Amino acid sequence: MDRKDFLNSIGISAAAFALLNCIGCKKNEPGSTADTAGPTNVSFTLDLSLAANAALLNNGGSLVTNGVIVARTNTGAYIAVQRSCTHESYTLNYQPGSSRFYCPNHGATFSESGAVTGGPTNRSLTVYNTQLNGTSLKIYS
Asked: Where are the alpha helices (DSSP H) in 2-139?
């Protein structure tokens, strides 16, 4: 194989790789809000004495359940927001050190109150109410 053939084959491979990544990246059709809005009629209770919910016993802990991220802030308050980014519905991460929710796919950021703090989205997160009663944490619309 000569140099020209080699460079052409690398260029085609790189283009194919980039195309596959772009196709896999797009979750919804343009203008679609499928899964970019939070669940409605949310009402569930977490038993904080169960090992499955132990992350919420410490400030900065979080978990994802029922389409909702439930977190305990650095100040000890419980918060709950939709688990999906309002840009293209990728699962958000709670970053307690920055007091924010972060989309690892395109870099969108949201405050603990759900407000957009960095694009590419301009839609805030759906926020849910929380109510602690003993070791029962209720999350509801």
From this structure: 3-25
Cβ-contact 44, 88 below 8 angstroms: no
C-alpha torsion sign, points 102, 110, 90, 45: positive
| pTM of the predicted structure, to 2 decimals | 0.74
Euclidean distance between CA atoms 141 and 134, whole angstroms: 20
Per-residue pLDDT tens over the stretch 80-115 = 999 989 988 788 999 999 999 999 999 999 999 999
Query: Whose CA is closest to 80, among 115, 134, 126, 136?
Result: 126
Tell me the C-alpha distance between 18 and 129, whole Å: 42
Q: What is the dihedral of CA 97, 101, 104, 106, to 10 degrees?
A: -130
Read off the tokens for 122. 């301009």
- Let me know the angle formed at the C-alpha of 75 by 103 and 112, rounded to the nearest 5 degrees: 30
Secondary structure of residue 136 in the 3-state scheme: strand
Percentage of the chain modeled with pLDDT above 70? 75
